[in-house]
Design brief:
The chain is an alpha+beta fold and 274 residues long. It has six helices and ten strands. α1 runs antiparallel to α2, α2 packs antiparallel against α3 and α5 packs antiparallel against α6. The longest helix has 47 residues.
């Protein structure tokens, strides 16, 4: 008799728990779908208002995090957990793990400043947080950057905000920096004129300001030329490599001698009577 009652009680309990777990799974799946739908609607509404893509993605991430936290609390409430007690527990735990979360919170605060102050936007080519690449997204805690060698890199917002930020896309053009070694026996004026004339013909090199070709330093081989064409950021690497090829073709021709180190040896006369 007692065994039958125990089995009946266990069966009823397991059935109730199973139904609650099944209900929680359904609630989670439906909640996740609704969150995705809501975030999509918010982003579409903001996009119609022509919001900046950087701010658009940041707000979308914020809405998603808030709704996911709400979903978790709702599921806990479904299981009978008092959400008010849960909130109090979180507040108490927050005091204990506040130090551990300090970095996370600083990244969140830095992300807000990055969106408000706008030192860069999505699509800009930047150097920040010891990373160089194109900005894909400014998130709640990290900024996603694609490096030139196609590596997706996540950099903490606080690291970016607390360091120097170089935005290569902010200005209409930038300067390419290259050097070329001349022989000491070469005609410097002729070399400068020849290199400058050829650099001007490179595709996507802008005419104003015109390319700079000047002596920047001297070595044992001879003078060193600084070759500096200007171009848009989108064409930087094409101009960089084409300029290198021009330097090789112009200064590597038979018109200019190859640079070689020059040493002068002085022979001291021996002392009288030695």
């Amino acid at each position: 008799m007692k065994l039958n009652m125990a089995l009946a009680t266990a069966e009823a309990t397991l059935t109730e728990v199973g139904l609650r777990v099944l209900g929680a799974i359904v609630l989670y799946m439906v909640g996740r779908w609704l969150i995705s739908f809501a975030v999509g609607m918010v982003q579409k509404a903001l996009a119609r208002q022509k919001f900046d893509p950087t701010l658009l993605r940041f707000l979308g991430n914020t809405v998603s995090v808030v709704l996911n936290i709400t979903l978790v609390i709702a599921i806990l409430g479904y299981f009978g957990v008092q959400t008010t007690s849960f909130a109090a527990l979180l507040a108490g735990a927050g005091l204990a793990i506040g130090a551990a979360w300090s970095g996370l919170l600083s990244n969140f605060a830095a992300g807000i400043f990055l969106v408000v102050l706008r030192p860069f936007k999505v699509g800009d080519f930047i150097s920040a947080g010891a990373t160089v690449g194109t900005v894909e997204e400014v998130g709640l805690f990290v900024t996603t950057i694609h490096t030139p060698d196609n590596v997706r890199t996540f950099v903490g917002n606080n690291k970016i905000f607390s360091d120097n930020i170089q935005n290569f896309s902010a200005n209409p053009y930038r300067r390419v920096e290259l050097t070329a070694q001349l022989s000491g026996e070469a005609d410097t004026h002729e070399a400068i004129a020849a290199v400058k004339a050829r650099v001007k013909t490179i595709a996507n090199v802008i005419a104003n300001p015109e390319p700079d070709v000047v002596i920047v330093s001297f070595t044992l081989e001879g003078p060193v030329l600084a070759v500096r064409p200007y171009c848009s950021n989108a064409n930087y690497w094409q101009v960089y490599f084409d300029t290198n090829m021009v330097i090789r073709e112009v200064l590597g021709s038979s018109a200019f001698p190859a640079p070689t180190p020059v040493f002068k040896i002085h022979q001291m006369a021996s002392a009288a009577g030695a």
